[in-house]
């Protein structure tokens, strides 16, 4: 069961598509009645099994009114703590140890207690570390202030001393000249009235320093003196913890009013102030103290960080195990909240969808849960009858998953509807290759894909980028596309636009030297016809383009008509499976007649023309089949009685339109009336239980039959098919257009880049030419053209092919499973 995944999820199974991929798995609505004591273990075992999609029986209740709301809140709190640990580990560069086991045999209560203790310890360590780091950053700033301001005061002191000694030598002045060495104005007349200046030191952010200085000057009306010194290296700000460029400042002021203004301005600008002594001996003492404390703090912080790392590594050892346990428990309680409480409040009743094949395994899981939880009463498992549409579940493997997802992107198949994926596995890469046909480019794609396929085990466990993830998911699609591209490239005989006589020599030879410039008239057939694909002699002749255009255009129509016929045949398969005779006789039959009387006939004419070598104009034949059906065909006649056949086909095509439109609505109305009349007099033999299920499942049987709606729907469907038959056939001509574009681009890159570079006989130009050719081939042909051909192939499948039979209005089977819990983000 390891390879089974819901709704087309890829498993790890083999590479061959399972034979039951045509129809989705038969599903059943089941009811499980579980005693309260074994409910948790039962849901856990069903999650391990992953084959039950529970229905929410408490949809009328809010999340807070449900039975297990408290347990979910508790799991949510534990998940928050785990997210906190994960964030802390990523910041510290600690990786959680990978948990390989699936069974998480630990008690949730123990996990809760342990997580609480670890969170408290880690929070305390972080808080202490933040305090120590703040102190360290403050001391670093203080040290810078001491250094820069000390230099300023020392230089000012030296300058003042020099000036003083000069003045003393000239004039005999009193000894008190050094009272205020920084005041460079002359003494006032009265030497007793000296001005005592105060000063403040600190750091201000460099980008604010000019504004800071200007505001200070204006606020004090110029009664300050400020000096700033630039710090070369960035400083960690103690408040924000971020690096910033700062300047050390010293502001001299006079008076308390000026001081209070300066302090307010410093606060507004985020300038950190630090005490500073004018005394040189005190400065040296403070510097020694700060340096000592910095060394102590560094040691303490280092020890704290080591302790924190050891704690985070301890958490990392068990992190994945705890995380899986918490997620698993949260998922179990979410599911338990979807179950309804029995009247006795001793049992939980659950309903859900499961595949029919899973019944024995589900019953085994229920029995095991009852035994393991020591429950005195076992769980009850029963299948319910319902008219509700079951979910769609396809068992896919790693090969078919990507193809199934391509189909599901258009719409999930209705329950038991024919699955287009069965044929898409072949038709999708083939139609891609028709547009991308070049075996050189195909080999390049194959090499790139083989890298993804051969390393899939390693790559599947890694986190890839968005584009790489997409390419890896579709690796088998790209593998098939590359193989088919090699096949069609061999048919087109193109290897980077160069033809090779791989299977035999060319069947033609030149009549004379100038025949390569002439049309095919200059060629003489000397050997048997080239055995496989296009004869290499066509490449390079003037008639290459007309010949390949004609070939690819007709081939596109043949492929298109064949695939549209396959779509209509699939609608027959659906009608037969659902036992709808109306759809067989009034949808499948007229659609087959209409499509094949017109475009099937065109395909037959193409094949006859190829076989007979006729020169008939098929455009003329098809146009005048409608405009002048009674006229003689003349030289456009391809086979005897062609005119009679055309008239018959035209008549059948015209008849098939009302055949599609009119009978079906009337027959459906008659069937509804007969069914409704039968229901009116039916016996009430239903059990209460089944009636209850029908009520829940929606009353499909009692819907009113709106004949006008049915008729309009059928009218739209008929018009869509008739017009679509023409437009869809024309749409397949994109196969021709893109194939031609790919071939011509490839030819241009080869001739105008590589050959031109070769013709210069210059080694440097040749190297440049080769590089340009490689980049152009990879960028344009292997990336852009691949994407273009992929999208066009996708459109042909979604619109032209699937609209013939595919309703795609189902919903995926989404079982309760623990398989993907480890990969999901919270």
From TrEMBL:
It is a multi-pass membrane protein. The chain crosses the membrane at residues 430-454, 475-492, 555-573, 585-608, 644-662, 763-784. GO terms for cellular component: vacuolar proton-transporting V-type ATPase, V0 domain. It holds the Pfam family V_ATPase_I. It comes from the Eukaryota. It is found in: Membrane. GO terms for biological process: vacuolar acidification. Keywords: Coiled coil, Hydrogen ion transport, Ion transport, Membrane, Transmembrane, Transmembrane helix, Transport. Residues 108-142 form a coiled coil. One of its GO terms (molecular function) is ATPase binding. PANTHER family: V-TYPE PROTON ATPASE SUBUNIT A, VACUOLAR PROTON ATPASES. Essential component of the vacuolar proton pump (V-ATPase), a multimeric enzyme that catalyzes the translocation of protons across the membranes. Required for assembly and activity of the V-ATPase. Belongs to the V-ATPase 116 kDa subunit family. This is V-type proton ATPase subunit a. It comes from Brassica carinata.
